[in-house]
Amino acid sequence: MRTGVGYDEAVEMMLADDIQHQIFHRDSLCKMLGTMMYRQKLDETPWAKYVSVSYYLMADVLLQSWLEKGVVPSDWPERHNLTEDLPEILDNSSSEDEDNPKDPDFDDPVPESVGSGPSSSRYG
């Protein structure tokens, strides 16, 4: 993504009730705010309440310019829980399952007494 974060992290950030506007470029933020103002979606976006007044003033000027030119802002999608769109991941492992030493991907834990002290060394 353009902000330097992955999709999952971006979804988590946007669903949070926290400051998020700092990750957007000023022009993109003003366009977004102008569209949200036109579509009356500000109250549905938790992070919008943290945006400073100066951005809202710029967005209002932009929105007025759009309306004077007859430009209708794009639709603003309804807010929904994006985690519902993620595929369901089945967790087949549990702590109750026994780990089989004959299993090809068996990970034998190293006993604490082996190689854990400062006097132990791999090379002699």
Summarize this structure as a short list of keywords or feature phrases:
124 residues, mainly alpha
Q: Could you explain how this protein is built, in words?
A:
The chain has 124 residues and is mainly α. The chain has a domain at 7-68. It contains three helices and no strands. The chain is elongated, with a radius of gyration of 26 Å. 7% of the residues are buried. The mean pLDDT is 74.
Topology:
Elements: H1 7-15, H2 26-38, H3 53-68
Helix pairs in contact: 2-3
CA gyration radius, whole angstroms = 26 Å
Uncertain spans: none
By secondary-structure content and strand pairing, the structural class works out as mainly alpha
Shape descriptor reads: elongated
Q: What kind of sheet is the major sheet?
A: none
Q: How many DSSP E strands? A: 0
The H-and-E topology, N to C, reads as HHH
Q: Tell me the fraction of residues in β-strands, as a range.
A: under 5%
Could you tell me how far the N terminus lies from the C terminus, measured between alpha carbons in angstroms? 50 Å
Average pLDDT rating: 74
SS field, number of helical segments: 3
